[in-house]
Amino acid sequence: MANISFKTISLSNSTTTSAARLGELAFSTIPKIIETPAAMLYVRTGVVPDVTYDFIPDNVTRLLEIPLGSLVESMNNLENTESYANFARLSNPIYCPFHDTLVPLRAGGNGNLFSSVWTKSGRKELNIDRFKKLIQLVKPTMYETMFDGDTPFDQTTDKRFTKDRERSRKFLENSLEEQKNSTNIIIPLVGGYDKRHRELYLNEILRLIPKYEKNIFGVSFEGIHSYGPLTENLNIDTLKPLIEETRKKLNDYKNLLFTMPLLWRPDNVIRAVDLGFDLFSGAYVPYISDRFIILSFRYNDKMSSNITGPDYNINSKEYMNGKQSLLSNCECYCCKNYTQAYVYHLIQTKELLGRTLITIHNLYHYHAFFQAIRESIKANTWNEYRTMILEQYPIQEQK
C-alpha cells in the first residue's frame, strides 16, 4: 500500500465559530497534495459512470472512491494481478468504503462471523478471511473495515445495538491485527442514533487508538442510514449532537480524517463542513446525472445564471429549443460546446453522449463548489459563504 499522510492546517486569522477546517492529504504515489474538504471521484469496477478518464474535468479531485462491494465479484480475476490498480490501469489513490453509497442495504445480512455487501446481483457475504483476501488483492490506499451497522432508525432494539457493537469491534480488531493490511484504516463508528451505544463503542475505539495509532487513518460515521437514494434528504442537523460529542472525545487526535457515506446534496455539504468533515462521497454526481439533473446553484458570488434554482431537469420540454448552454458562464467542456436543446435531443434519442455531457458538467460544477469552500475557509469568509449556499435551497428541502 502507498504511504499516505493527513494533517489539518491551523488558520491563525479564523473567526468562524464552526468546526470547519482545512487539511492536506499527501500520497507517495502522486506528487500533488489533495486539499480538504473535498469530494472523491466515484468509481465502479474501475470506471467512472458514463465518462472516460480523458474527459473528466481538470478540477476534479483524483481520489477514487471504489466501494468494496463492486469488487467482490472480481476476486478471481484479481488473483492473477499484482493489485486492482494494475488490473484496471489506475494511477490515482483509492479509497474503499465497505458499502456502496448508491446501493440500499437490506436488513438481516450480518452475522457473528460475516457481514454482507449488496451488489447488482444481490447479497454477497464476506467473512473475515474473505474480506482480508479482498483487501490484499485490491491494495487500496485507504479502506474502511468490515462492520455491522444494521441499525435502522426507530427499528433497533437494545440487543441489536449490542450485537452491532460487538461484531463491529471484532471485525475491526481482526483488521488491525493483520500485519499485511493494517495500515491506512478508516474506522466505522457504529451505534445508530442511540447516544449510549455510540458512546460505548467510541470508548472502545479510544482504548484501541494508542496501540494502533500508526494504523488508524480516520473515522467514518456509520449505522445511521441504509445508504441509497434516501440519504440525499437525510437531516444532518439531527446528527449534530452525536457528531459534536464524538469530535469532542477525539479532540486529541486532530489529524484523524472524518468522513461519512451519503449522497451529499450541496446544502448538506455545508452543514457537514460546519461539523468538521474532511472527505465526502462523490456518488451524488452519478446519482443526479442518471436522473438528468443539472447542477445550477451559485457556488461563488461572481456567477450569473440563466437558471432559477439550485438545479433543474434537462429532460423537460421547456429546454427542447434552448439555445443557451446548460449553465451560462460555466467553463466545463459541455457548456462551452453544446446547447440545452442538443443535450435534450440526446436524451430523447437515448444516446449515451447525453448522460456523458451531463456528468461532465456536474463533475465540474460539484468539484468547483468544494474548491470554493476551501477558498472561503482560507479567506476567513466561511460564515458568509455558507449563508449564500443555504439561501439557494428551499426550506422544505433543507428539512
Automatic annotation (TrEMBL):
GO cellular component: cytoplasm
InterPro entries tied to this protein: QTRTD1 (IPR028592), Queuine_tRNA-ribosyltrfase (IPR050852), TGT-like_sf (IPR036511), tRNA_ribo_trans-like (IPR002616)
Names of the cofactor(s): Zn(2+)
Record note on cofactor: Binds 1 zinc ion per subunit.
Compartments it resides in: Cytoplasm
Entry-linked Gene3D superfamilies: Queuine tRNA-ribosyltransferase-like
Main location: cytoplasm
One GO MF term attached to the UniProt entry: tRNA-guanosine(34) queuine transglycosylase activity
Positions annotated to bind Zn(2+): 330, 332, 335, 361
Record-level GO BP terms: tRNA modification
Residues covered by the tRNA-guanine(15) transglycosylase-like domain: 19-394
Swiss-Prot/TrEMBL keywords: Cytoplasm, Metal-binding, tRNA processing, Zinc
Recorded family membership: Belongs to the queuine tRNA-ribosyltransferase family. QTRT2 subfamily.
Oligomeric and partner information: Heterodimer of a catalytic subunit and an accessory subunit.
Protein's job: Non-catalytic subunit of the queuine tRNA-ribosyltransferase (TGT) that catalyzes the base-exchange of a guanine (G) residue with queuine (Q) at position 34 (anticodon wobble position) in tRNAs with GU(N) anticodons (tRNA-Asp, -Asn, -His and -Tyr), resulting in the hypermodified nucleoside queuosine (7-(((4,5-cis-dihydroxy-2-cyclopenten-1-yl)amino)methyl)-7-deazaguanosine).
The protein's name: Queuine tRNA-ribosyltransferase accessory subunit 2
Organism encoding this protein: Adineta steineri
